[in-house]
Structures are given as C-alpha cells and as structure tokens.
User: Fold these one by one.
Assistant:
Number 1:
Amino acid sequence: MSCQDSPLCKVFLDQVVPVVGSLTSLLIYIAPWKEVSLIIALRELGGVNVLPYAMMVCNSIAWLMYSFLIRNYFVMVTNLMGYGLGIYYTLQTYRFSTSAQQVSVARLLLVGTVVIFSASGISFVFISDPVSAKLFLGWVAVILLAAFYSSPLSTLYAVLQERSAKSLSWNLAAASLLNSALWTCYGVTLDDSFIWAPNGFGIVVALVQLVLLYLYGGSVLERQRLVSSPRVCETIDEEA
C-alpha cells in the first residue's frame, strides 16, 4: 500500500503539509520586514539588492492566478499576503534606489505583469482543457518561482568582486531554505517534478547565499547598530 492509500497519510499530504507550507512561504514574505524597516529609518539602501522585492510581487501574482485556476485557498491566501508585502517592500525601497535600480525594478514589474496576465488570459479563456490550462499556467508560475529564488544572486558578481555580501539577506536566505526544503520533500513524496524541481533549485540558491553570507558577511549588523544609535533613534521618534 502506497502512502497515498493510507487515510492518515492522505490527511498529512492534503491538509498538514499545505498548512505548514503556507506558513513557511509566509516566512519568506515576512523575512525582509526588518531589513526594509532599517532602510526606511536610515533613508538609504546600504547596498541591499532591491530586485528580490519586485520578483516577490511577480511571483505572488503568478501563484495567485494559478490558485484561482485550481481553486486552492492555501496558495491564494498566502500569496495574497505576499503580494501586499512585496508591493510595500518595493515602494519603500524604490525611493532610496538609484536611477538605474529604479529602471530595473520598473522594467521587471512591467514585463513580469504582462507575461503573467497574458498567460492567465490564455489559460482561463483560450485553453478549454482544464488539465492543459493548469499545466500551462503552472509552468509560468514555476519559472517565476525559480526566478524569485535566484533573484538575490543578481548581485553575485559584485559580491565576489567586493568580497562583501551586503546585498544579500540572512533572513530571506534562511526562510527560502526552509520553505524549499519542505516543498522539495513534499514533491518527492508525490513524485511531482513541478513541486520538487523548482524547490530543489531553491535549496541550492539559498545554500549559495548562506555560504556567501558566512564567508563575506553583510551590512545588516552595521545598520542595526546605526539604528540603535541615539541620532537615528531620535530621527525615528520624530517621524513617528
């Protein structure tokens, strides 16, 4: 008897794992909160990579569309929150970004949104077979998930050249590793490559980030010390 034939296993796969997976996915969306708060307090990026925030928006929209198609409320609620937080992170960091960073973020959001809604329109309107529609939009969501996981490494060259991982985030990398590991195990259990393949890739990317952070360190602690200083605390109090 396979795992799927066991009532207990079915409950575990259909209820427990999606709930836990939704919570770990939410951890990814919450992970940048402290870092973004520091950026707002200091009114500077401090070398932080802003592209993951824009990719968070695109990834959330893709999975929202997919959740509407398959009517999965676990996926829907989690990514609705991810969309809101992604928009908040993007808007807050956009004002402290350079012109080149702002152009990159705007271009990424524009292209991502066009691709997602075009794919969603095709899946909802033009593909009559539900299985084919799910497969098509699922591929788009999986590709964007892989892009979201890898977006922090868009500054990999600078990290290696400067020997500084200030553009990376401990919180985001750790949350990505936890989430990817859970969904990889789940996908392997179901023998579903749509689940384990992109999340297996996410494990590799998260581990690379953690190794780089361990080797080169980041600027999060430096910003934390600055926020704890009397001058910045007074600034925060005045704004509040």
Note: The mean pLDDT is 84.
Number 2:
Amino acid sequence: MRGIAKKQVTNQQPIEIKNDQIFLNVIINAKTRSLEITIKNARLIEGDLIVVTNSEPKEFPKLNNLGTNSEINYEKTQKWKVNADTILGKYEPKQKDDWIKTNLKFNYEESEKIDSKTECYSHWISYIDKDGNILSKSCIRAYPTWMNDMKDSIQNFNMKQIFIPGSHDAGSYRLNFNPEKDETVITKYSLTQDDNIKSQLMHGIRYLDIRMGYYAFTKDKFFMVHGITKQRPLKEALEQLKNFVIETNEIVIFDVRKFELGFQNIEVHRELIMYIESYIGEYLVDATHSWDITLNEIWNSGKNIILTYGDSSMRNEFPNILFNIVQHRWGNKDDWSSLEEYLRGLHGHLTASAQSDMAELTPNAWGIITDKYGGLRKMADDVNPKVYELYSKHLGFTTNILSVDFHRGIAVTELAIHFNRLRKHTQQ
C-alpha cells in the first residue's frame, strides 16, 4: 500500500531529546484538518529546511551551490533521488522551539487504510540541511500495538501506575465529516473526536470515555451520546473494540459512565449490560480484581477489556464484569489559565480507582448560545498545544490517564510511551 510504512523493528523513542537532537512531531488541526509541525532544538543554520512528503524519504538532492533559501528554485529540486516523489511543502524554522502551521490538508480516509502493522503513513516530515542531509525525521504515526511493543517495560505496572492516552467523549464523531463544509450549530458544540473507535485505538488511545442514550423506538436502541445529542450506535463501537483487541492483544478501558437519556428504568440498565456482554463478554477482565491488577496479570488471563459502569447498583448485581468507573478529574473551566491551575493542583492526590485528567476546555451555556468560543474544535486547537507542553515538562511523570478532545491535535500517545519508559527506568 503506497504511503504506508509497516513495522519492521519496534524501537519507538518519542520525546527523548538530547541537547543536540532535533525533534519533530506532526499533529492535525481539528478545525482546518491541516498539518501542524512542532520542532524542538532547531539548529537555526542558514539553509536548514523542514520538508513534507507523502512517502518516506531516503535522500534529498543536494541543495548546495543553489544560493540562499530565498534564491533556490524549488521547481527544479522537487524530486529526491530515491523515492522519485514530490515535495509537498517546505518551511524554514524561525526559532529553536517552533510551531509551524501549514496549508497541507490531512485526508481522514487515509486512517481507514491502516492496520495493526502500520507505523507511519500519509505524510513524512524531514529536517534537512543545505546539502540535503536528513538530520531528523517524523511522520503521521499509528500506534496499534504500543503496549505490547514495550511489554517488558510496563508489564509489572498496575492500571493506576501506567500512563494511558484517553479520548474524552470517545463516541462523539461523525463519519465522512468535513468541519469546513458540514459544521452546524449542533455539531460545533457536540463533536469531540474526528476518528471512529477503531481509528482512535489504532492511534494509541486506550481509554474510551463513553456516554449512553437509550432510544426505545429505533432499530438500534443504544447510542453513544454527548449530552442530549445522539451520536453513533453503540454496536459500532463494540464491534470495532472487539476486533481491535483480537487483532492486537492490547488492553483497553471501556468506561460506560453516564446515562444521559432513557435510563429511568433499572431494566434498561440490565438490558444495556447484557447487550454489551453479548458483543465483548468473552474479552472482559474479571472485575473482582481491583485497579491494582497488573498488565501482566491481565495479559495472562487472556482477556483484554476493562468494562466500567457508572451505576453502583449494577456493579453490585454484575460484580464479575463491571469495574468501578474511572475517576474523572474535571475542572469545568472555559479558559486555559484556570484549567492549567486546576490540572497542576491535581497531582500527588491518588485514589483507589484509576483516574483521568480531563484536559479539555468546557464551554458554559451562555458561551454556547452566543458562540463565544467558536466551537469545541477551536477550543481544542487553542488548548491542546498548551496541554502538551504542561504534561511533557511538568505533569507527565505522575499522570495515570490523560483524556483530550480531538486527540490527533496533541501527541498524547507519544507522551504516554515516553513517560512509561521513564517510569520503568526509575524503578530499576
């Protein structure tokens, strides 16, 4: 498959930045779906460029003897020697730690092509010097098996010790949705992700925050919802989750925590639990274990899905399959300074349950009515880079679960891999 790199050797080392190492990362803007490139430790030497391609580069043509950056005729240097492909964009780093917004669009249909062997796909980013030497390289990454890839490092962690990437309101997405064309007043404040459940999992998400609605008079009665807005049918998520754990042997938390519509009758809860069990029952981790269960114990059990449930009476009725819900550490803040203060104040406070930092801005009702915020996409685009900086520099070492809106706009899986590796080293 063109433009997709399959894994040959598993040696993922994101964020491991040495003093002279140039670090690149590429994310996707939620509102425009354009690529954004983050750089750390740029050399700021004349002639250095960041080049975007849609295949993995092996070598670029020599750019020396062509003058300064402003004088180079890029039309004559569009081909590189090995790949015979075109350069999609080229950018000059302006500062040591830089954030470059591009006009290059990501096509979400590309995400449907990946599988459990995919590592890089769609776009590659290279930092090259004036002679075309590649000094650093990155790509749009999938992480379908990151837990198994670093099993030796994390297998003895329990579920409260491991850093887990999470998606807030994981079921709030639309298929084939183009925010620049299809956005409405409703979708502006109800959609929180751009990937379906399969794609979220393939890109490394291992905690799924699920909110439920019951619609008695429709063919599919159970839907994932966001507040009062109906989103995707639950069976879609369950089928994708089941197929994913069968294919990858990864461990996933499926957190069914809120029941927004139609759950006044306890029988509806029972019906939902039996419905979920009919799809993924054979893969459910024994809930009589506490959250202190280790990853190795879960893998040895041959079951991969931790199912939580937000109704205590149901947990008492089905104690073998329903864990207590993940504790949400939710600030309910609509501006970054307040959210940052809240998130900084969380760490060092542990509970008996797994806990998730809910690192997204929350609009208030009047702000939604007046469109004060510009929508959840804009809020995520504004806050995700700041969340990344906060956790990469300050909070990552003590984080259990980090849940975000529009997870492709923040390298949350890379953060998890990095800090899980650091935690292993500190235990040795």
Note: The CA atoms of residues 65 and 193 lie 47 Å apart.
Number 3:
Amino acid sequence: MALNQDHFSLLPETLLITILSLLSLKDAVKTSILAKQWRNLWRFRTNVEINDRHFLTINNNGNHEHQNDEPDQMQNLKKLQQVACINFGYRWLQNQTNSPSISSFSLTFSDPQNYQFNIESFIYLALLRQTKSLKLDFSCLNSEAQLPLNNSSTYVGRFDLPQFVYEYKSLESLKLVSCVFRVDKFMYLGRTLKSISLGWIEITDESILRKLVKNCPLLESLIVSKCFKSTIYVIESKSLKTLIIDKCVDLLALSVIAPNLTCFKYCGSFVQFGLSNFPNLERADVDFGLIEMFDEEDGDKIAPLLSKFYFARSLTVCSYISQVLFYNDQVFPLALRLRGRPLVNNLTIKTAFHPSEFNGIYLLLDTYPLLEKLQFEFGQPTIFEEDLALLGHDMYETLWSEEPSRNGCVTNNLKVVEIKGFRGSVNEFKILIFLITYGRALQKLILKVAENNRNAEILATILRNTAMQHRNALNVVVIS
C-alpha cells in the first residue's frame, strides 16, 4: 500500500460520520475541502448545531461588529445574517430526514422573539428525530462577559419553553439559557433526565430547584450558572453526582443533601453553606472570586466548610481562602484533624504569589498530610493588602524560613509540584526553595512557563542545583 494513500477515505461513511460528530461544527465543516467524498459528509453528523454566532459578525468584546453603524443599517445587516442562519438550520435538518435519530440538538440564537415560529419548528423537528440531548441558548451576544446585576431583565425571559417539550419522554440532557420554564410541568420530561444546566434564568424562590430535582429521579448532574433573584438554593438528591454553582450573584445560602455526590464546584461570594457529608466525593473546587470586601470573620468559616470535603482526593481553593486564613492560623488545621487525616492527595491553589497569601498556603500544606501533588495556578485575583494592613497583620512575615511541621505533607508525602504560569518571581522562588529544601519525597517539579519568559531554563538550572545540595537529582520539567 502506498505511503501517501488517504487511509481515512477507505473507512465506511458511517464511521466517518461518527468521527465528524465528535468534532466541533467549525472543525467538521473544514473537512469539506479535503476531498470530494468529504464535501457534504459533515451535514450528516448525529449532533446538530445551529448557532447564529457563526453567521453574525462579532468583535472580541462579544458585541456586533457593526454596532457603531447607523441603527437601521446595523439591524438590517443583523436580520440578513440571522435569516441565513435560519435557512441553514432548515437545510441541515432536512438532511436528517433519512436518519432514524440524532444524538443531540443545540440551538443558540440571540433574538428568539423575532423568530419564535422558526425556533419552535427546529425544536419540534429535533424531538421528532428522538434526540437525547437538547441545548437551548437565547442569551445576548455579550452575556459571557456579563453578570446578572441591574441589567438582568435584558438577558432573561427571552423565550418560553414550548409545551410539547414537557411532553417529551426520552430526553437525557437539557440545557436552558435565558429560557423560561415551568418546574411544575417536569413530571414527564424529568423522568429520564440525567443532566440539567441552567444559565441566566430567574429563579423566583427557593422551592424551584428543590422541585426540579425532585421531579428528576435519575438526575446525576446539575449546573446552575449566573441565575439570580432567589437568595436560597435547596438541593436534595440521592442520585446527584455532579453539582456546579457558578456566579449566582443574589445567592446568600446554599443547602445540599446529596450522599452520592462525587464532584462539587462553587464560584461566587461567601455564602452560608449547609452541606451534608459527601462520603463519595472525589473533587471539590471552591472559588470566592466574586468577593469585593474582605471579612476577617470568614476565616472562622473556612475550616468547617473545607471539612465537608474531607473525603475528596482532589481539592482546588482560591486566593481569598489563602488570605483569610490569617485569622484562623491556630485552629484551622486542628478543626480538620479532629476527624482524622483528610484524604486530599491533589491540591490546586489559585494564587498571585503575593505575600498576603503565604501564611494561608503554609497552613494548607500543614493541613493535608497525605498530599502528593501540589499545583499553583498563577492568576490575577483580588489582593486585600490594605485590609490586612489596617487589621495589623504583617503580611511580609512568612514561615518559609522555618522548618515545616512534621505532620504536614512537605516532609513526608509531597512528590510533585507544578506551577502554571511560572514567571520566575522572587515570591515564587521563596516557595519553591522551601519545598525543595524540606521536601524529602519530592521527585518532580513542573514549570509551565508564562509567555515571554526567556529565562525559564536558567531558573530551572538554579532550582536543580539547589535540589542537589539537599538530595538526589530533582526532575525539573520546563514547558513553554
């Protein structure tokens, strides 16, 4: 067989369509130029995607590229582009008439009010093809960069879920963004649902999520992102395995009873957490990136919160946790150890490598004795330097010059350290020298270098030489 022969073209079309179904729509369309056989093959993908963003001219800010033109001119251009998207959708769905079913149907459209009949037709045709996954996104063009604050009315209530969707009994996955739904109508639809994702939706009261989950006895995954109005979320489920609460700005209290939960992610402000024990938990991610004001009392609440993730093997914490632990540096490790040794063996710390985070980082290393892998993710979190100074704490007084606790992970189990966005700053070196000096089990150091850092290899050599002074050779890997 010739070496330059196209082996993909030898595969049956059914297999090629399956491969194309695993690609994004843009990548799948690009294959049409490969050969004559591939020209229309992407149209028969089993996952149908209609997205007006692929037709609208959008700038980097998520707005229409011609928004500064004359209003009538811009609206006429946008209308022409959306009509082209509608026609594309009809042609694609007509190609599916010979297919017994489609695996998923995704519709993203920024002006559903003006095309309600067309949108309902698309959804109806998708359900007629026995789709298992339905994704409806009617958010504004720039919604990804926004939070649901005072302008929430602009982003919600843009489309009502049609009645025939509630009567569909074979759906396994449902995603609704800026879409109004009736939770009391989920009696039939919810019987088969295993995954629900809600975004930019007005949750009017605390009973909504409780009723939704109750009507979905098989539910395994629940994502609530940028929803608002209700200040209390109550979630109770025996089947739920993944729960993600993301940037729900009005939220004040979160209650979760889910004994089979394996993944918990939270991003938002510091709220009142009422979490049950999660004996099957594998991963936990807590990010208080929306906090705007420093509250020293949060330090007393961190330990009880993290103790709920006692069984998790992987834990991710944010910079705010490292900063606020100044105020609980004596009781924080003890509060977790009262139940024994936490099982976390993979810890990720989001950090700016600022001195105000150092004591908190030190305490986290002391609290998780079974830790084998430590990851630092460099970013630009809010640093409350002035608040700490006003409260009389010397943030430049750190523990890196002292020998670590014998009960912590550094001297016993820590094997791998990784920094994402390594810049070679003085503060990064302080932490790394500490870990190299006292990390008896340390085997590997991974430095994923930030852009425009030309001194990475020189810095890596310095770290290798430092390691040689304390133990055998340390494997330092530099990734540009």
Note: DSSP finds 14 helices and 20 strands in the chain.
Number 4:
Amino acid sequence: MKEQSKLAQIEKEMIRYKVKILGLSGIRWPDQGEISTSNNNILLYSGNPAGEHGVGIIIEKTLRKSLLIWKPVSNRIISARLNSKVKKITIVQCYAPTETATAEVKDEFYEQLTSVLSSVPKSDILLLTGDFNAKVGSVKTWPTIGLRGTGTRNNNGERLRDIAEQHGLVIGGTIFPHKEIPKYTWVSPDGRTKNQIDHICIAQRWVKSLTDVRTGRGPDAKSDHMFLTADIKIKLAAKRVTEGSRLKRLDVRKLRTEATKQEFVPSVQQKISRRQNLNQKLTQDIYRQSGEEVLGTVNHQKKEWISDETWAAIEQRRIIRQQLLISNDPTLKDSHSSICRKIKKMARKDKRKFYNDIARDAQIAAEQNNARLLHRKKDILSNKNHRKLRPIKDKNGSLLTSTQEQLRRWKDYFAETNTHVQNTELEDQEPNIREDPTIERGAPTIREIVEAIKKLNSIEQRELMAFLQSCLKQEKLQQPTH
C-alpha cells in the first residue's frame, strides 16, 4: 500500500467486481485514522508509528452511512460495526504472525484477538477475516471446519480452529465445494508453492447467509495473495437522508463571465415578475431554481492523477498475471517483472505531472488575483486537501470513533473553554497583571520599527500602510484652518 497508485488500483478492482466491503492486511501505514478516498469510499486503517504490518477496511461509498463505530485495536487487528436491516454486523480484520514467529508473539496476538471477539455483542453478525497464515486442512472438525479445505494443518491452523470453536465461528473456505485452484489464497514468487492461508469466518447461527467463499484470479493489485471473496446475503441499512440535506452547491464561479451574468439575471427577474407577495422562502427558491438551470451544481469528484497510459499498463500486467497462473513460463515471469517496474516509473511520473499542473494553475490564479483558487491549489500542494477524518481523542488520549462519543467530547470541550464568570464582583476587580522586567517600556526606536515591518508578509504590510494613511487623513482633517 505504500507504493504510489496502489490504493487507486485496489478501488478499481472493487468497482470491477462489485465489492462493497474490503479487508486489507499488511498495508504498512503508520498510526491509525479514517480517510475519504478519491472515490468517496471510507478507508479505516490501524498501524503503529513504525509502519509495521498494518490492517485496514474499505467501505464502499453507498454504505458509508451504515458505519456505526470502528476501533483500531493494534497494527494487526481492526474492527468495524455496521448497521443492517437484520442485525448489527461486526467485522474484525486481522493480520496474524507467520508460522515461523515465536510462540510469545503468537500468544500475544491471539490473546488480543480473543479479547476483541469477546467484546462483540452476542446479537451481532460476526465476521472474522484476514491473513491468518493458517493452513486448516481438510480434516473435518464440524461445525468449525468442513471437508472442503486444502493442505495440511499447521500450528497457526490449530490456533485458528481453537479460537473459532471458542467463539462459535465457521471457516467459510472449508464448506463450499470448489476445485483446488479457487481455494488457494497465496502463491509463492516461483509459482510452485500454493496455500490456503487467508480465511473468512462467520458466526454459526448466520452461516446460511454465507452463500459462497472463493478466490478470484482476475483481480490484480500486484500482490502474492489472491482476492478472497465471500457472498453474504444481508441488506445493510443506511440512515435516511432528508431532502433538505441533499441540496448541492451551485457553481457560482460561472458568474464571473459576462455571458453567464446576462443569462442568469433575466432568468431571476422573469421568475420574480410572475410571483406576487414574495417572501424570503419564495425568493430563495427562485434564485435556487435559476441557479440550477443556468449555473449547474459543483461536481466534487476528485481529479484522477493516474494517466490512461498507466491504466493500460496495469491492465496489461493483469493479463500477464492470469497467463502466469496457468503457465509457469520464465518468459512470462520476466515480462511481469518488467511491466511492474514500468508501472512504478509511470506512476511516479504521473504524480510529478499532477503536482506540476497544480503549481502552474496556482501561479495563474495568483496572476489573476483569484485568491480562492490559489488557496485551494496551495492546500493540495501542501497535502492538506486529503480528506482525513482522523478520530478525535478523549482526555486520556484514547481514540473516539463513534459519532455520539465525538459529539459528547466536543460538548465537554466547549463547556470547559467557554465557561463564563457568574460572580459580578470578580468582573469589577482590578486585574492583577505582573510586569515582566525584561520588557523595555520606553518608546520603540526607528530601527526596531523597521525590523518589525520587515517581518510582516506582503498582505500585512499593505494593511499597515492603508491604516497609516487613514490615520494621516484623519489628523489633517482635525487640524484647524487659518
């Protein structure tokens, strides 16, 4: 996920295969947070300051209102709770230690995972997903493991089976009849070793809602893991949006052109002349209607910075990868490695071009005295335009990820900062101001004034000169005439 354009590639595969919720393992992003992507999807992620391991969940934009609360547990575990028309759904995304990790590291991870699963309400539909590095095998341990698994069970597989039995989960990849190829979730770089180590588990009482679990060989985002998908028939419920909140912002920038003004003003005048007994509400409706007809609304879609040539190369890499899965040809391996390097270079080049174009637009905006556009471009160049919805923290520094907790925290914060003194006697008292002996109380010298003016920016200098000129004018007016 650190590679440029990787998130855009993943989102394109989500659109191609109509994936609503996607779990990510090994994203290697530092810290925790919540961001809105270029496609208006929500990405929840959890990591550590060093950017080790890392997990995340992408929620498709049509379901973003279904998100109730999420919790970044560690750099290996993240959970999210969503609303549905049946029950609440809790998704726990994991990135387990490898088979060669020490027993202490494994024990710490599974103890933490057990604590998270135990805190999930019993009425919720529980989904446990992620890269467990666990081979569960095909030995039936009903109702946790079916006969449709593959491989030989290892130590991580035993640990996953135990935690699934403890919390009443079914490992979905072991209960559906598929050939061996759709079962493999990981392929080694040489193409010889294949394993089923990624899993999707669901609560036993809701196992009938799970209609299929299999890997997709078509999706490609340059990963040695396959795209593991699950079909679940549960309707998610979003909060109902009122009509008033659906109004889009008008594109008032078009009013800068004279032709648009000449079209907009007569449209408003004509509508006003047809009405009688106008009030504020009717006037607003007239301006709104004329604005939608003449100006249109602003499209908030972010500009795509990846060029068509780069997307074509990504599509070519996907085709080569599909051929490589069928035939272990050394020529195809070389072609795949070559095009991966090519895509990296093309993505970096597209990114540089994107920022150079923004810098050019900012320069043109500055020359045209377009302050709004200039500040907008400046925010993009300074990386402030990335819509980061990082959760706020409580007094102890813990993240608050639910809307109610955040609103309660804001209420307490403003109550603390906006406290008013009720006792009028305190207001009448003289303030006890301590003088700083290091500050000189005499009049500033001309040199000190010049040095202070030099430290001001150009806008502040202009404002200061305008203020001084107004003071001089007032002083001249107050002088007596002879």
Note: Residues 249-294 form one domain.
